[in-house]
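Hi support team,

I've been running sequence recovery on a batch of backbones for a student project. Most finish fine, but this one hangs at about 90% for roughly twenty minutes before it completes. I'm not sure whether the input is malformed or the queue is just slow. I've pasted the structure tokens below so you can try to reproduce it. Let me know if you need the job ID as well.

Thanks,
M.K.
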């Protein structure tokens, strides 16, 4: 059972893991920061040097500290600079976005000792034309809604799904023609001469989230329960299409199946909405098939992001040999490690703790996770989910200070 405690009028997960000593340390550090215009004490040069060492091998026995994995995103510019958020314009107005990121980076350099966002303009002459993705094959449209991109549902009943799968299976007979644009050959010839290879397909919206987008969450649940034969056909069509897309793009980049770069990652927030039996029937075989092709070796990356309550899916995911995970904040490091022995754990700072700037809780969650990482290490302190607008540079500096002061490992 996940337990929460009210601390500073906010809630923190797994309160049984928080000690009185942790509370005292959190209060002390926040007091120091507030007494210095919100800037927690930290030697930024030393911190980043130590962090580079720790990040190279989070499991390393000689790493100096728990590595920091919080990556501030472009959307963080709005709260930091005190301007109204316009996420669509941030994506479409490059000159405006670059000006905001420059102002943000100037501030970041002073607060955390490093420029954090890429402020370089995109050279469109060095880009390949867009390639169709898995959602295009399954006729789901990507639409802008409520500040982000969403896949629209493309079919709504079993008859429509059957008809869609017939079209998907037909497209897979010549998927290259379907996914590559008409100008591909000309642009490929030009760019390959310049030494620029096309991007490969090594990441995907996870199977349960994808199926829920194409067919609807409730529809997919009932499909698995009531019509497992059709559900299996749907699942297998996803497997075949994913492997075919990856194979086509590998070949376009000049790779064979044996020498293509390895590693694959999934983002599957909605897999939490299915019980373990449903997941093992539908989602697990997709990850297994893709990992067997693209992550066959023990050192090949097998990554899963699911910023939801993943407790019930941990046994199945543990059997996949994941090497990196980013799960929701209700899980503890210890729970994840029990099932994912080889995985670097990116977490378990609650995103809302960070973006609401709950200073004492930020420090508490670091202390909680550091304590659980001491025996086996392999934890990169990061948000257990996305980094959202409202996440502040002073909050990042506070994490850096807490790591430097309280998050150092005994070496040797």
């Amino acid at each position: 059972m996940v337990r929460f405690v009210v601390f500073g009028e906010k809630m923190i997960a797994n309160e049984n893991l928080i000690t009185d000593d942790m509370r005292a340390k959190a209060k002390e550090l926040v007091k120091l920061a507030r007494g210095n215009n919100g800037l927690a004490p930290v030697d930024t040069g030393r911190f980043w040097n130590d962090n580079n060492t720790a990040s190279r091998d989070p499991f390393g026995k000689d790493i100096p500290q728990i590595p920091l994995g919080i990556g501030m995103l472009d959307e963080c510019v709005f709260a930091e600079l005190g301007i109204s958020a316009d996420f669509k314009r941030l994506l479409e107005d490059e000159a405006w976005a670059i000006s905001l990121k420059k102002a943000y980076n100037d501030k970041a350099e002073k607060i955390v000792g490093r420029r954090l966002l890429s402020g370089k303009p995109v050279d469109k002459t060095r880009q390949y034309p867009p390639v169709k993705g898995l959602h295009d094959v399954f006729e789901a449209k990507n639409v802008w809604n409520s500040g982000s991109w969403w896949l629209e549902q493309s079919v709504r009943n079993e008859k429509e799904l059957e008809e869609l799968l017939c079209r998907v299976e037909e497209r897979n007979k010549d998927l290259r023609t379907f996914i590559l644009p008409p100008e591909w050959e000309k642009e490929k010839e030009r760019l390959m001469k310049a030494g620029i290879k096309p991007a490969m397909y090594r990441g995907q919206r996870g199977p349960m989230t994808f199926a829920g987008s194409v067919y609807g969450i409730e529809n997919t649940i009932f499909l698995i329960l009531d019509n497992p034969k059709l559900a299996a056909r749907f699942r297998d069509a996803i497997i075949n299409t994913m492997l075919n897309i990856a194979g086509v793009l590998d070949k376009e980049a000049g790779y064979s199946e044996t020498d293509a770069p390895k590693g694959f990652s999934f983002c599957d927030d909605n897999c939490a909405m299915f019980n373990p039996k449903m997941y093992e029937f539908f989602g697990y075989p997709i990850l297994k098939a893709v990992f067997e092709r693209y992550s066959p070796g023990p050192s090949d990356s097998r990554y899963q992001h699911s910023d939801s309550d993943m407790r019930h899916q941990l046994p199945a995911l543990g059997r996949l040999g994941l090497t990196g995970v980013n799960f929701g904040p209700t899980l503890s490091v210890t729970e994840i490690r029990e099932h994912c022995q080889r995985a670097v754990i990116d977490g378990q700072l609650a995103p809302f703790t960070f973006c609401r700037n709950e200073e004492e809780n930020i420090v508490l969650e670091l202390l909680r996770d550091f304590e659980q990482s001491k025996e086996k290490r392999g934890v990169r302190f990061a948000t257990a989910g996305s980094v959202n607008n409202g996440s502040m540079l002073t909050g990042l500096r506070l994490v850096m200070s807490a790591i430097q002061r309280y998050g150092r490992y005994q070496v040797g």
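--
Follow-up from support: It reproduced on our side and the slowdown came from queue contention, not your input. Confidence is low (pLDDT under 50) at residues 1-9. No action needed from you.
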